[in-house]
Amino acid sequence: MKMRLTAVAAAATLLSSIGLYPLYDSAKWVVPGFGAVLAAAAAGLLARRFRLPVPVDIVAGLVTMLLYVTVVYTPAEALLGIIPTPASLNGLNELLDEGWQVANKYAAPVPLGPGVELMGTLGIGLVAVLVDFLVVRLRRAAAAGLPLLAMYSVPAAVREESVSWVAFLLGAVGFMGLLLADSSEQVNGWGRPVFTRRWSAAAPREQPGAAALAATGYRVGLTAVAIAVLLPTVIPGIHPRGMFGMGGAGRGGGSGSATVTTLDPLVSLKRELARQDDAVVLTYRTNATERPDYLRMYALDRFDGDRWTYTPLRNGVTNPIDGGALPAAAGLSFAPTQPVNTRIRIERRVRDMTFLPMPYPPVQIAVEGDWRVDPRSLMVYSLRDAAGGRTYSVDSLRVQPTQAQLATASDRAPADITVRYLDIPRQVPESVRRLAMDQTADAPSLYEKAVALQAWFTRSGEFTYDLSKQSPKHVSDLVDFLTRSKRGYCEQFAASMALLARTLGIPARVAMGYTAGTQATDGSWIVRSRDAHAWPELYFEGAGWVRFEPTPSGVVGQGTASVPPYSEPASASEAPAPGAEATPTPSESAGAAGASPGATPGARPDDPDLAGGAELPQESGGWWLSPAWIAVVALIVLIMMAPMTLATLNRRRRWRRAGYTLVLGHARPGEASERPPPGRDEPVPQQARDRANAAWTQLRTDAIDHRLPWRTNESPRATSRRLAEHLRLDAEAEGALGRIALAEERARYAPVPADVESLRADSRLVREAFARSVSWLTRWRARLVPPSALIGFRQAAGRALDAIELLVTRLSRPPRRRG
């Protein structure tokens, strides 16, 4: 019944299923998945026990899988709790439909409800059925790697983060065990194997004669796994945390990284809004007298025609926070401001938050860790730390411009603002511009046009807040939202208003973070995952970047969203007279005035640095002086020196075993540079043979290291004559080579070996002659990476693989029957 092969196939499937862990936010899927694998194995055993036809084998597995999920998920509707009925099948179909909707609604990891769990169980079960069918019934173990690989490809396709190397290694071990078990079954199918004694005479062990082929398979398999596990850790850009996890923060790289990268903020926004648990993200206390302002994390300034994102933050234009003081906000000169202090605590369960949420514009921040600020957007982020579990304090300004001030603000923004925040890709159709002009035709100023756009989204009744809509992926999706469907959530509203504002000449960007949340009874504010939000920020000279709110709020929209007072439509009495100008009001907070910090002194509008496309130099720092990198460099140096060191040690050990003491200087042949051990006047015959063998072995080693041809079927004299002619050795080196060959011949064939005192000096002389006769590349290769030293590594690896082979053979050998 192939019980052992069935068990190994099931074990390989279970180990590979570990690769599905990134898809779920809970580990409860493991138990039903384990049961599905056992059910598939049992079905295969029964089908083979009754010798059913091959096609029936896989059908039996599928039927067993249906019975299993019926028992686990819809037993109440099934006959006797196990036999499927129309009602139970309908229940399974509803669960699958529910799981499919959740999978499309959430980004991984998804909440593990019954529907999602059923999808995972069926997936694991179907892979188990297919693997059992391929391995046990069709005897195609190698082909079973494809369904096993599918359980790794699914997480890799839906997530930016790769599967843990530990999970991959477990799956690779399972697949290798599957191949070994199948090869053992294939060999045993031919009958009793032929054995040969290949272990020591003192403790002989019987091993199959095909062990060399098996050892080759082990080497290939172990080498492939080692390369697959280790290679991504040393190639820049593949492993998210750098080599051996020392690359700093997984998102941002290390302190020496040239570009800060994070997951798409809008992707995480949709995931937060759709979370069913609505978990608490942060709590904060503030001294604001009115409802607190939003907590901003990202400022998305680039629209590429499909998506909004931010200009890559590059070292050299981002500044470490020194003493907590932040650059002044851009364009803020005459709008009234109110200083606000906010103390924020991020929940410990929050993961991968590398941008700090805070009111805009921040003036000063007190936070532990290595945090940096982008002076143009005032986004605060870290290259190596995360916000989860941290508490920090932020001093910010609450900007309170009046409608009159915004209406009379200058239409001319600084060059760096217009270049960066008025860019519109060519693929945006002209119909978008005409739509913006139609909706704001009656508005005389840019501010009133912005208010008209906001009112169109929130007061016209044409738009509906709908969280089930997919995130826009192309400009056509935004056009469809604006002209046809008019259904979406905050991402569509914010992205559309920012784009429309740009077509009207208003600098705009999309901000993302959290709304103010809800106030607790103790006066603190609680922000949950569903308070995640996106909104447009529009630039008006004198007031800087001000928030607008086009997303419907309350029960029909984003529950905690709020419309700023200055963005409400002005009444006729409050509207400024045509041509009137507002008197600038000095800021109530010191430090609010000043030129735009985003402007680079002397920069031109076409400066490539402003477009974020120039490669700026990496930030100077001492990352290479960290203990971890020093240890890595030291390890690399030791590894590089290992072959040379091993070759030297082998040479010294070889001469010491031959009875030589230390060589006194660089003696030439005929000089008394080598002495026998103390207490002996003359070397005994055996010692002379050992010396001759050591010199000959060293000659062979030196020839191999210098890539010289060595023929094992030649006599020592023929070898020395061929090498001398091939290399055109001088008389001194040729004489030394002849003495070594003569000593080896006498040691092999003569009753009394030759006593040549200068063999060690002759060996050194020949080695130097070899080095002079080859190219410089071969010479240095022989010194630094001598091939003879690698023979020892291969021999040690071979012994280790022999031990593994012995262990596998013993474990796979059927137990002997007693009696």
TrEMBL record:
Listed Low complexity bias regions: 561-603
Biased composition (Basic and acidic residues): 668-690
InterPro entries on file: Bact_TGase-like, Papain-like_cys_pep_sf, TgpA_N, Transglutaminase-like
Gene3D superfamilies hit by this protein: 3.10.620.30
Keyword Transmembrane: yes
Residue ranges of domain Transglutaminase-like in the record: 482-552
Assigned keywords, A-Z: Membrane, Transmembrane, Transmembrane helix
Transmembrane segments: 29-47, 59-83, 118-136, 141-158, 164-181, 210-231, 623-647
Location of the region described as Disordered in the Swiss-Prot/TrEMBL record: 556-615, 666-690
Protein name stated in the entry: Transglutaminase domain-containing protein
